[in-house]
Design brief:
- By secondary structure, this protein is an alpha+beta fold.
- It has one domain: Cytidine Deaminase, domain 2 (3-Layer(aba) Sandwich), CATH 3.40.140.10.
- The chain has six helices and seven strands.
- Strands 1, 2, 3, 4, 5, 6 and 7 form a seven-stranded mixed sheet that branches.
- The radius of gyration is 20 Å and the shape is globular.
- The termini are far apart.
- It binds zinc ion (ZN).
- Zinc ion binds next to helix 5.
- The site of zinc ion has 6 residues, from helix 5.
Length: 186
């Protein structure tokens, strides 16, 4: 194959170089980190504990990476979910989406208050700090935008650190959503 010259390779950037920068914007996100479970409110502690407990029910024979999610709804119900893997890898599902889809199936009218996520290696009690993956952020954000109130995220980190994120939009700014489709959010 003939090698392209630098001019050929960068012809696009030359073509578009006449664009004028209109403005530069910064995005600020806010989250709190705590060193001890005691610093959280009782309901937050219970939600993290529910996520940890259910992580032992994860079906993760391939990755051995067990994740538990616990969702608190406006009516006080706590819905849990775990990651469900599959021999055909993409057919599996993360704990967060397992839980949120079940929650919104059983309680479609209830607002989501908070999602706690806990992860650990199979047969290990040591917990791993994880944040929801991109697809789960997208799925959760859908409901935050629909209910017009923030969904809080609680994460359990290493060595007794706990992270409290105030809103899904902090985890997924400049998102693809209803407005991207030309529809008004309801
Ligand atoms: Zn995920």
């Amino acid at each position: 194959m003939q090698k392209k010259s630098l001019e050929q390779r960068y012809s696009l950037s030359v073509t578009f170089s006449h664009f004028i920068l209109l403005k530069t914007e910064e995005i600020k996100i806010t989250f709190n980190t705590y060193s001890s479970l005691d610093q959280l409110q009782d309901w937050q502690i219970q939600l993290i504990q529910a996520a940890e407990k259910v992580s032992y029910q994860a079906y993760a024979p391939y990755s051995k990476f067990c994740v538990g999610a616990a969702i608190l709804l406006d009516n006080g119900e706590v819905i849990t979910g775990t990651n469900q893997e599959n021999a055909a890898y993409p057919s599996g599902l993360c704990a967060e989406r397992t839980a949120i889809f079940y929650a919104k199936t059983q309680y479609p009218q209830q607002r989501v208050i908070c999602v706690a996520v806990v992860a650990r290696k199979e047969e290990s009690k040591e917990l791993l700090p994880v944040t929801p993956c991109g697809a789960c952020r997208q799925a959760l954000l859908e409901y935050e935008l629909q209910q017009l109130s923030p969904i809080q995220i609680l994460l359990r980190g290493n060595e007794g650190t706990y992270c409290e994120i105030k809103s899904l939009q902090d985890l997924l700014p400049i998102s693809f959503n209803k407005k991207s489709l030309g529809e008004e959010a309801k």
